[in-house]
Amino acid sequence: MNYKLYIGIALMTTLLMSSCSEESTTQNLIIGDVSNGKTLFETNCAACHQMDGKGKTGFAPSLNNIDFLAIANDHLIKRFILEGRPGTTMIPFKSNPNVAENVDDIVAYMRSWSKDFALYEQISLDYEWKSNGDTDNGKALFVNYCAACHGAEGQGYSAGVPGTGIGNASFVSMVPDDYIKQTLVIGRVGTAMKSFDGAKGVANLTNNEMNDVVAFLRTKGAYNKLVATAAENSEPTTASYTFSGGLVTIPYLLLIIGVTTLALITIIYSLSVINKLQRGIVQESR
Ligand code: HEC
Ligand code: HEC
Q1: At 27, is the pLDDT very low, low, confident or very high (cuts 50, 70, 90)?
Q2: Tens digits of residue pLDDT in 188-201
């Protein structure tokens, strides 16, 4: 009788092992040469974005910002680099083959900055979400809450303000409504861009008011899927990132170990119960 129990355990273990290994191959790991990315970044980007992408207020935004990295997925970051922000000093790097052909390496390098953050979690942007806010009220709110830092028309640095050009058509047309909304909700830790969401916010806006501001910014440019999704990147990456060896993987590992242990205990227990029952039946029938 016992051999069945061993076969059962062996089968179950193999099954669990194979599902584990599948898990690790389907993880959204960033494919890119981090050290090549670092070299490219230091030659092409650091003059403005500074070493390690720490940014310089009023000159170039911080790229190693944990909230920026959480809201902007790989796909968006690539588009930001390749399309640039026409009308600002951020040139479109698609015309620079050295950068364009190795853009994955740069993104991988940028992602490597966030490995230190235990709570780093990629936000899944909802590309279908529309704010449906009131553009007039949004404009009024923008003048009151945003213009001082982003410029009266959202021109950004060119207006001598510390905030980026969020009214710039090239920016607005590349991001879905949810990108702007998430930035308002979360803010950008360590920068002048604070959260506007409820109790956490410095200057609070209600959910509807945030939607109104998003609707107003949307009037500056429609979300342009064509620009935002170039042929080589047909689908936006919205899945969460798990770094191999990073802290984020630990909860998953614990979960897998926990589930495996529980499953094994259940199997062993139920098999032994069946075993006992069968023996009982055999004894009774004697
Ligand atoms: C001449 C200065 C300059 C150089 C060089 C430069 N950038 Fe920028 N970058 C900027 C500015 C300025 C902005 C913000 C523009 C705006 O929206 O107002 C920006 C924006 C960005 C953004 C979007 C950030 C955000 O907060 O949304 C990314 C990503 C970025 N740059 C990456 C790069 C990378 C990667 C390189 C090198 C390949 C690079 N940049 C080179 C000036 C520069
Ligand atoms: C006190 C100054 C300040 C105020 C007020 C402010 N911002 Fe910002 N905002 C910034 C700065 C600075 C950044 C760029 C942060 C960085 O350098 O990484 C930013 C970034 C952003 C971004 C990201 C842009 C990008 O390039 O990815 C959005 C969107 C944004 N702000 C929207 C708003 C809106 C809408 C309001 C008004 C409700 C607002 N901000 C109010 C300073 C401000």
Answers
A1: very low
A2: 999 999 999 977 66
Q: How many angstroms is it from 10 CA to the middle of ligand 1?
A: 54
Atom of ligand 1 nearest to the CA of 47: 5
> Any idea what DSSP says for residue 166?
T
Give the closest residue to 55 by CA, choosing from 202, 228, 146, 188.
188
Residue 174 has pLDDT above 90, yes or no: yes
**Mutation to probe ligand 2, out of 142, 193, 212 (largest number of atoms < 8 A from CB):** 193
C-alpha–C-alpha distance, residues 84 and 72, integer Å: 15
Query: What are the tens digits of pLDDT across the range 133-164?
Result: 999 999 999 999 999 999 999 999 999 999 99
In angstroms, the CA 284 to CA 223 distance is 76
| pLDDT at residue 242 is higher than 80 | no
CB of 38 shorter than 6 A to ligand 2 = no
- Cα angle, residue 15 at apex, residues 10 and 16 outer, rounded to 5°: 100
Asked if residue 66 has its Cβ within 6 Å of ligand 2, the reply is: no
Q: How far apart are CA 117 and CA 243, in angstroms?
A: 11
Angle in degrees, 0-180, between the axes of helices 207-218 and 177-186, rounded to the nearest 10: 140
Ligand 2 within 6 A of CB of 41: no
User: What is the domain class of 34-233 according to CATH?
Assistant: mainly alpha
Dist CA 176 CA 222 (whole Å): 9
Q: What is the pLDDT of residues 54-103, one digit of tens each?
A: 999 999 999 999 999 999 988 899 999 999 999 999 999 999 999 999 99
- What predicted TM-score, i.e. pTM, was given to this entire model? 0.78
Q: CA 221, 69, 175 angle in degrees (round to 5)?
A: 10
Ligand number nearest to the C-alpha of 204: 2
Of ligand 2's listed atoms, the one at least distance from the Cα of 146 is: 37
Distance of CA 6 to the CA centre of its chain: 44
Strand partners, 205: 197
